[in-house]
Write a structure and sequence with these properties.
Elongation Factor Tu (Ef-tu), domain 3, about 40% strand, 5 helices, about 220 residues, six-stranded antiparallel beta barrel, 12 strands
Length: about 220
């Protein structure tokens, strides 16, 4: 579990492509704090540390993750957002983020007003159903608030600090980003879609008459 508050920016130092596995080596200045088996959020994707060599931390990205995220398009020397897993007792500064990406979004428009930026991000209709106005969303692992919901896209407002300490400061129109919807919004949407599936049928109006048919119906 993560919070969506980015702690570091890492740099892709090694890429090893195999048939069904994708190994990434990411340069991290805090590699001495990490051990093999730790869970790390890389651009919003929960990955497991498989090896550490000096200041380079290695992760294996499975086929499922490659199909549902933009990890397969990462390039050498590209920067990525890094967050360590939430520990018991840590402060929750953003929102609960699982590291399980729902879909890949496309930056439809980026506009800058003074030091802050507005990103309009297009996603598929199925994922749009889980976007909640003024709700939370994780974009490349960054906890943000939905400022506006449109038909096939949504808008987030990014403050100067976030632009400075995350990769959103480098992102531009046409780039892709990993999207994880707010877990509460996903559950609420699922409940709404399931209304009626297991609804208990109401009892018929009470009657003060006990008939022969009534007794037979109830096993007498």
């Amino acid at each position: 579990m993560f919070t969506g508050i980015i702690q570091y920016i890492g740099t892709i130092e090694a890429i090893n492509r195999r048939d069904d596995l994708f190994r990434l080596g990411i340069g991290m200045s805090f590699s001495n704090e990490i051990k093999i088996g730790d869970s790390i959020s890389v651009n919003g994707v929960c990955l497991t540390v498989v090896n550490i060599e000096k200041n380079i931390v290695y992760f294996d990205v499975a086929r499922q993750s490659l199909q549902t995220t933009n990890m397969g398009s990462l390039k050498l020397k590209e920067n990525v957002n890094i967050e360590q897993a939430l520990k018991a007792g840590d402060k929750l500064g953003g929102h609960f983020v699982t590291g399980h990406v729902d879909t890949v979004g496309l930056i439809k428009q980026k506009s800058v007003l003074r030091d802050q930026a507005f990103f309009e991000i297009a996603i598929n209709n199925k994922a749009m159903a889980g976007v909640v106005d003024k709700g939370s969303v994780a974009i490349d692992g960054i906890s943000l608030t939905v400022a506006e919901v449109k038909k096939n896209s949504f808008v987030v407002n990014v403050i100067p600090h976030t632009l400075k300490v995350t990769t959103l400061g480098f992102k531009k129109t046409g780039d892709t980003v990993n999207i994880e919807l707010d877990i509460m919004g996903k559950y609420a949407n699922k409940d709404i879609n399931n209304v009626g599936a297991n609804t208990v049928r109401p009892l018929p109006p009470a009657s003060n008459k006990i008939t022969e048919d009534f007794l037979k119906e109830h096993g007498f």
